[in-house]
């Protein structure tokens, strides 16, 4: 891996941190104000092939569910680290959980790099009319896009600014492509009382909804 992704696009993000310099924070502005983010596909981070057929659902999801991966809160914000994290998640889900592939559709690293999770997630998102069956939230996998944030956000930890800004950008793009209202973004524990996931990110959901709505105009 090359460590730093060439900047395919640049974006002046108004109202946030100015001209964002990392690859995952770049994008092409759409008329609505949403941005098509740079996403490293499964082929770009050299994911393992799925253990079985990934199911493509011929309709649009109606919500987003936010997670955290409970990985280390690393200070390594590089693209290489984002790829290593994507491998760690996939290995955990396939080898420990026995799933066919990564359960999440997308992950956002602490450095603001986006990786595709389950194979086919990026292609169907771009198309905007279908999505792949995930494995991230019991009872919601056939209706929700699962987005995971690298890190463990319990006990007062908060996401780095780059991660937060990219989460907003990705959620806005998902909402636009699938016609999801920003109000329909939830945390894992909204559907599973046995988990604390996504930690403090759950408390930040009102802010996330507000910032995504503002980005969508």
Automatic annotation (TrEMBL):
PROSITE patterns: TAT (PS51318). Residues 30-49 are annotated as: Disordered. It comes from the Bacteria. Coiled coil: none annotated. Pfam families: Amidase_2. Residues 49-199 form the N-acetylmuramoyl-L-alanine amidase domain. InterPro entries: Amidase/PGRP_sf, Amidase_domain, PGRP, PGRP_domain_met/bac, TAT_signal. This is Peptidoglycan recognition family protein. CDD domains: PGRP. Belongs to the N-acetylmuramoyl-L-alanine amidase 2 family. Residues 37-192 form the Peptidoglycan recognition protein family domain. Signal peptide: none annotated.
């Amino acid at each position: 891996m090359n460590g730093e992704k060439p900047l395919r696009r640049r974006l002046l993000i108004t109202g946030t941190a100015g001209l964002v310099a990392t690859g995952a924070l770049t994008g092409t502005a759409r008329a609505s104000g949403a941005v098509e983010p740079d996403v490293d596909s499964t082929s770009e981070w050299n994911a393992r092939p799925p253990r079985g057929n990934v199911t493509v659902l011929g309709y649009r999801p109606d919500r987003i569910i936010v997670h955290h991966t409970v990985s280390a809160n690393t200070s390594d914000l590089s693209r290489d680290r984002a790829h290593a994290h994507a491998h760690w998640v996939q290995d955990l889900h396939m080898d420990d959980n026995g799933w066919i592939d990564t359960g999440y559709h997308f992950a956002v690293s602490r450095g603001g790099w986006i990786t595709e999770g389950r194979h086919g997630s990026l292609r169907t998102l771009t198309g905007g009319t279908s999505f792949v069956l995930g494995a991230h939230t019991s009872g919601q996998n056939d209706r929700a896009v699962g987005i995971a944030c690298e890190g463990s956000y319990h006990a007062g930890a908060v996401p780095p600014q780059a991660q937060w800004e990219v989460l907003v950008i990705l959620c806005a793009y998902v909402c636009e492509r699938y016609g999801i209202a920003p109000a329909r973004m939830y945390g894992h524990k909204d559907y599973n009382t046995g988990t604390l996931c996504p930690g403090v990110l759950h408390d930040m959901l009102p802010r996330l909804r507000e910032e995504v709505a503002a980005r969508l105009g």
